[in-house]
């Protein structure tokens, strides 16, 4: 059976994912974090609330992946999941409140250096990675099943709080649909273990001027549950034909990690 690790930031997101299962039993990981193991699904689904931000997400993901590998039950797929901010470049476009986004690129938007000429990603300084690209066929299948849009999801350590910053991110990342705080950390840990990764976000708020009262967290959590109801079947259905990939901007392809394996 396909084994899937889902990593959320907070317990409310974990519980929204667990809601697809009849029951979710607690399993304690080395170090004390608690994993929830969903029962009664056609895939084995473990859900971990690892904390807010890319560092907590990477640490929790790596711990769960290592524990599973040492137990002789490695995961086939890791999914970063939760609520997120949606970009709306114009009426009828982007990711509106309550919609779901599946990342076709998981991009670290603030991993780099400020220079007099603006932001420079670490890859242009000669280091590391700023983007992971999930398997396009898997993204297509999962997004179609969930009724989700596929596009770039950026990972930030600081939630965007102004229209100027939202516009800057949208300009630097053409095709960006959503912003969250964990995807890149989860993807780094998954890549270190050679396991494919996905990111699924339900939009709770618009990216832009901070207005916490306008966040629709309940609606987003409901949408997240809806997306995960479709995931087991999407992961067990045969893959469809692959269309020609669209051209990508240079900033996204530099330092990419490709994850070609399809979850079995
Ligand atoms: O207060 C609650 O009930 C509650 C329930 C579920 C989740 C939360 C969070 O605050 C989760 C924080 C989490 O959400 C992501 N997020 C959401 N919107 C944005 C955004 O505009 N920019 C960046 N991240 C966003 C993020 O991944 C956080 O970890 C509260």
TrEMBL record:
Point to the regions of Basic and acidic residues compositional bias: 255-264
Which molecular-function annotation in GO is an example for this chain? methylthioadenosine nucleosidase activity
Q: Which domain of life is it from?
A: Bacteria
* A UniProt-annotated Pfam family: PNP_UDP_1
Keywords for this entry? Hydrolase, Menaquinone biosynthesis
Q: Which InterPro entries match?
A: FL_hydrolase_MqnB (IPR019963), Nucleoside_phosphorylase_d (IPR000845), Nucleoside_phosphorylase_sf (IPR035994)
Annotated region Disordered: where?
234-264
Q: In which pathway does it act?
A: Quinol/quinone metabolism; menaquinone biosynthesis
Q: Which residues form the Nucleoside phosphorylase domain?
A: 49-210
Q: What is its EC number?
A: 3.2.2.26
Single Gene Ontology BP annotation = L-methionine salvage from S-adenosylmethionine
GO CC annotation, single: cytosol
Entry's family note: Belongs to the PNP/UDP phosphorylase family. Futalosine hydrolase subfamily.
Which function does this protein serve?
Answer: Catalyzes the hydrolysis of futalosine (FL) to dehypoxanthine futalosine (DHFL) and hypoxanthine, a step in the biosynthesis of menaquinone (MK, vitamin K2).
Name of protein: Futalosine hydrolase
Q: Which organism is it from?
A: Streptomyces lydicamycinicus
Its gene is mqnB
């Amino acid at each position: 059976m396909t084994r899937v690790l889902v990593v959320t930031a907070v317990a409310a997101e974990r519980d929204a994912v667990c809601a697809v299962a009849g029951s979710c039993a607690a399993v304690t990981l080395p170090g004390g974090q608690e994993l929830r193991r969903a029962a009664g699904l056609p895939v084995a689904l473990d859900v971990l609330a690892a904390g807010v931000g890319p560092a907590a997400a990477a640490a929790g993901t790596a711990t769960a992946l290592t524990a599973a590998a040492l137990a002789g039950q490695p995961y086939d797929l890791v999914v970063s999941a939760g609520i997120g901010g949606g970009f709306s470049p114009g009426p009828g476009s982007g990711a509106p409140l309550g919609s779901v986004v599946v990342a076709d690129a998981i991009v670290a938007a603030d991993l780099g250096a400020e220079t007099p000429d603006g932001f420079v990603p670490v890859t242009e300084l000669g280091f590391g990675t700023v983007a992971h690209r999930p398997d396009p066929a898997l993204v297509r299948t999962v997004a179609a099943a969930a009724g989700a849009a596929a596009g770039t999801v950026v990972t930030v350590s600081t939630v965007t709080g102004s229209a100027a910053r939202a516009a800057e991110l949208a300009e630097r990342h053409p095709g960006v649909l959503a912003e969250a705080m964990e995807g890149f950390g989860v993807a780094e840990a998954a890549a270190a273990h050679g396991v494919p990764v996905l990111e699924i976000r339900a939009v709770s708020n618009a990216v832009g001027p901070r207005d916490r009262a306008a966040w629709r967290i309940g609606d987003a959590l409901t949408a997240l549950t809806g997306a995960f109801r479709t995931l087991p079947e999407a992961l067990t259905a045969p893959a469809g034909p692959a269309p020609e990939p669209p051209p990508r901007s240079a900033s996204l392809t530099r330092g990419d990690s490709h994850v070609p394996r399809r979850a079995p």
